[in-house]
Amino acid sequence: MQSNLRIFRTLIHRINNINNGTTRLYYTNRLNKESLYSRISPLGNPSLNLTPELDEWVEKGKKVRFGELKRIIHDLRKRKRFSQALQVSEWMNKKGIFSFTPIEHAVQLDLIGKAHGYVHAEGYFNNLMDQEKTDKTYGALLHCYARQRQTDKSLSHLQKMKEKGFTLSPLTYNDIMCLHTNISQHEKVPEILTEMKEDGVPPDNLSYRICINSYGVRSDIEGMETILKEMESQSRIVMDWNTYTVVANFYIKAGIKDKANQFLKKAEERLDNKDGLGYNHLISLHAQLGNKGKVHRLWDLEKSACKRCINRDYINMLESLVRLGELEEAEKLLKEWESSGNCYDFRVPNTIIVGYTNRHLYKKAEAMLLDVMEKGNAPTPDSWGRVAAGYLYKGEMEKALECMKAALSLHVKNKRYKPNLKVITSILSSLGEKGSIEDVEAFIDSLRTVFSINRQMYHALMKGYIKSGKAVDGLLNSMKADQIDEDEETKMILGMKQNTS
């Protein structure tokens, strides 16, 4: 019978063959009639330049509609493909097909900030004509400053907006409150809410929610309740599920379960029955409270109310089942997802794999990883690394080595992966003492794809060389060349040579 590692190598070869083309990681309905939107939207690789597609569309004599371009930009922004959204906006501006109003300039300025940073956004803003520097473009630049946590610039820019007499909106103050939140100055958020009201700008739902959050993170339940009561008393405010889930979350953290349940009930009463995101929040919070029955009830409601459940919904429900310890239920739901027609996303099965490793069920985690690969899909190296660390924890060194080799084999596909150094060091030490020199050299060769050679690698090689009777002089010279000095452990290993002579 093949070892798991040999099976793994066969599977990874198969996956590489499958993935030679571009993989689309989203669900889409095919339209019979081609439009510019249908042409651009499937180009899911964020690094692709959309400008040639736009130029080709025009060269073919096809119409370019302003409304459709705006829709494309909106869709790309929603999917956080900011560079591509900026390419479309810049193409519109450069071609002069449509005249940019301050609103279009504000959108482009915001995209520049997201794609290239606030300095580039400043440059774009400074080059605008005076009549284009309106509350819209000023507000977009303020958003760039606040998002990148430029406190002094944000506050100075807000003051300029006030001096120019712009009609300020809640969005302006929300940006400043978010800035203080992001730099952990939560105590300043209520001050901005007060300033906002003094300036005659009525807070909106988000304003109150940010302020509620500022009290919650400081464990000031009384302050949180005071702001919530003020919010509920405003006739112009329509209370939403989001605010009540924020409040419920802080009650959960404070251990006040009865109030948490009370506000989750309020949240559900205000939930649009087609709002998958709202269902996800409620399901997750009920899972934290251990409300298994409510988790299942809400999932059934979500499936019947929403047009279809996307991968995000399945991940959330699986995480909730894992939190509740319902691993068998999670396995059943995974099979349901596999037959759903949704695009493949490893994060879905990985939710259960993480649950297995957290409960020390490493054989089950390994079996699921192999099953994923048998179906022609690639897991992440991190997932194999977690299982390797688990086997090491149980003292099963051979299994740990096998899984770590699998992780390192996948590193080429995910170069951000950094193996657990403790696991690597333990495996190296064990290989040096018990493995063959061929095994040591093969493992170190795989490590070189991730790390520069280090002392632990040299020590493992030395142990293997000494054990197999090979000279270590060349290794010592290589150590010196790599500027790795001998330490006490090196001398102790070299002493093994004298003992075996």
UniProtKB/TrEMBL annotation:
Show me the PPR repeat boundaries.
134-168, 169-203
Q: Which Pfam families match?
A: PPR, PPR_3
Q: Which GO terms describe its molecular function?
A: mRNA binding
Q: Is Repeat one of the keywords?
A: yes
Say which domain of life the source belongs to: Eukaryota
Tell me the InterPro entries matching this sequence. PPR_rpt, TPR-like_helical_dom_sf, TPR_rpt
Extent of the TPR repeats: 381-414
Keywords attached to this entry: Repeat, TPR repeat
Specify whether Repeat is a keyword of the entry.
yes
What is stated as this protein's family in its record?
A: Belongs to the PPR family. P subfamily.
What name goes with this protein?
A: Pentatricopeptide repeat-containing protein
